[in-house]
Amino acid sequence: MLLFYMRKPITTPTQIPSVRLLQIDTEQAGQRLDNFLVRHCKGVPKSHLYKAIRSGEVRVNKGRISADYRLAEGDTVRVPPLRLPAVGEPRTVPPAVFPVVYEDDALLVIDKPAGTAVHGGSGVSFGVIEQLRAARPDAPFLELAHRLDRETSGLLMVAKKRSALLALHDMLRESRGSKRYLALVVGDWVNDRQHLRQPLLKWLTASGERRVKVDAEGKVAHTIVTMKKRYGRYTLLEAELRTGRTHQIRVHLASSGYPIVGDEKYGADEVRAHFARLGFNRMFLHAGHLEIAHPLTGEPLSLHAPLPAACEKIIDYLEKKA
Hints:
It is built from 7 helices and 15 strands.
């Protein structure tokens, strides 16, 4: 008699998500909770992480906590069961190489193109920092030292060491150093140099979109504006940030009656449409100059990112019309 045996299908073990308790060490201390989770839960959508924080599934020292809490050495972070990418899964973030303006073992400064978000979230699955990490898988530490709006081009600082990140945060918070932007605005700017100090308040539209407005209840904000050149109906300005509020330059200029060309949040649709017909499909705001002490050595750094070709082309067009 012949006996037939059915061979069981070969299965590969899958990673079963489980609760993890992570102890914060010296290198991790000072990091925001949400940024810490992004690093330790690679592949998990940010929306899932924020939901886990809001629901109390993520806890610090057994207590509920906010996403912007800064971790301290010795803290214990409870990370709930979250599906992590299986070994061998294809990379979901495409690596990218950005123009490097400065780099050493502690600091990386790139020239970010317009239209690229600095990080994933708000409908964007990934940004500059995720693409940098994908392009540099052996880098032990890469963190944004500050932000640039998606449609703003120019100098972006990335820390390669925790000590450098904390030092940069201190310098930016204390307004040490100088960050200067070029902006083309609608209107004939009057003063050669002007200080804008209107307080700024974040708010949400009915659709949930984040906006900023001038409001007495807002946070202190300070922008120094220098007139560079007039082109009749338009003016090229240099704006120096003395504080780093969300959309600060954009709102300060718009509230003064001089919105930035191409600004879809605070500018006019007809202006944006006019420049789109000229082939200019971005906001004319560029972080072109950075003067800051090196976060670890104290060496003075003076960095420059040239005006992008699309912006240069518009300036040439206005020069010819003037």
